[in-house]
Design goal:
The structure is a single chain. By secondary structure, this protein is α/β, with parallel strands linked by helices. Helix content is about 35%, strand content about 15%. It has 2 domains: about 5-255, TIM Barrel; about 260-315, Arc Repressor Mutant, subunit A. It has helices spanning about 55-65, 90-100, 115-120, 135-145, 150-165, 185-195, 220-240, 260-270, 275-285, 290-300, and strands at about 5-10, 15-20, 30, 45, 75, 105-110, 125-130, 170-175, 200-205, 245, 275, 305, 310-315. The strands form 3 sheets. Strands 1-2-5-6-7-8-9-10 form an 8-stranded mixed beta sheet. A 3-stranded antiparallel beta sheet has the order 11-13-12. It has a two-stranded parallel sheet with strand order 3-4. A hairpin with a 3-residue loop joins strand 1 and strand 2. Helix 6 packs across helix 7 (about 220-240) and helix 9 (about 275-285) packs across helix 10 (about 290-300). The chain is globular.
């Protein structure tokens, strides 16, 4: 069966060897974040529907998991906001009923956790990782470019409600964009929101791939450490939590076993995000020369293109 909805396994800084599930046929989201590594949002929506066939996803999972591959996580991620898909709860339940040995992770922007149905559908996931990049309306608009129907105060309330109901691991991610959400007042508001939400972990992330929009840059490592210390000053006394910096320069990517079809593994991942040559060497556990030969072949055959240090899938 050709892979349409699964990708990887890929080495994840936070999750180890992760098999990705993409429930969206194209970049579809409730937000149009300026930093998104998947590119600008093509469909900005709050409407939940079956974007791809739920049964096709289940069939593909059965094929890929038939031999019980070594995985650290099965992760809902990919081309947008996975909770927009109305079948996500059914797929999570299927995984927990048929493949209980695999931890299930949902990477989400958290905007739909105001919906009791969405909160219920995620209940059996082992780990839910929502993002909260801003509290003020100005920063929310600047960083996340939300659908007009979203209200950040309500989104934070949804995160609080979900934390109260959810029994799995709840990791809150904050993505920092210099000049947009790193001012002292915004950082203080984010810390106060995190105290209300009471996650199991608070993680700081920053740009390490080409962003959706030009002009977005990453904070320096020194600046990230300063911002983490500012958050720690609030979170350690209130929650006993030390902020984790999960940006590339702070966390090594673990190696992964070589997939049987190296070219297909690279193409599947590039369909969701750009990769550097170093990413590909780690993902496939290849010597750098072998990885270079692989990407050169893919470039010469017109399947991928190179821009600076990053390779991307060539679009029709």
């Amino acid at each position: 069966m050709a892979r349409r909805h699964l990708f990887g396994p890929v080495p994840s800084r936070r999750l180890g060897r992760s098999l990705g599930i993409d429930l969206l046929a194209r970049k579809t989201c409730t937000l149009d974040c300026v930093y998104c590594e998947c590119g600008p949002t093509e469909e900005l929506t709050l409407e939940r529907r079956e974007f791809v066939s739920t049964q096709d996803v289940l069939d593909e999972l059965d094929t890929v998991l038939a031999d019980r591959p070594a995985l650290d996580s099965i992760t809902f991620s990919g081309s947008g906001e996975p909770t927009l898909h109305v079948g996500i709860g059914k797929i999570i339940n299927y995984l927990k009923n048929h493949y209980p040995e695999y931890p299930v992770t949902v990477l989400t922007n958290g905007t739909l956790l105001t919906d009791p149905a969405v909160r219920s559908e995620l209940a059996r996931a082992d780990r839910v990782v929502p993002s909260l990049d801003a509290v003020s309306d100005a920063a929310f608009a600047a960083v996340n470019r939300p659908h007009a129907g979203l209200d950040n105060t309500s989104i934070i309330e949804g995160l609080v409600l979900f934390r109260e109901e959810y029994r799995g691991q709840f990791w809150l991610e904050i993505f920092l964009v210099p000049g947009l959400n790193d001012a002292p007042a915004e950082l203080a508001a984010l810390a106060a929101a995190a105290v209300r939400i009471r996650p199991d972990r608070v993680q700081l992330n920053s740009l390490d791939r080409p962003p959706a929009y030009a002009g977005i840059v990453a904070p320096t490592p020194e600046r990230l450490l300063e911002l983490a210390a500012d958050l720690d000053a609030v979170l350690i006394p209130a929650l006993g939590l030390h902020v984790e910096i999960v940006a590339r320069q702070f966390v090594a990517v673990p190696p992964a076993a070589v997939p049987p079809d190296a070219a297909r593994a690279v193409l599947d991942t590039l369909a969701r995000r750009p990769l550097t040559l170093a990413d590909i060497t780690v993902q496939l556990n290849l010597h750098v020369h072998e990885a270079h030969k692989l990407v050169t072949h893919l470039v010469e055959t017109g399947q991928i293109t190179r821009s600076g240090d990053f390779y991307t899938l060539k679009r029709a």
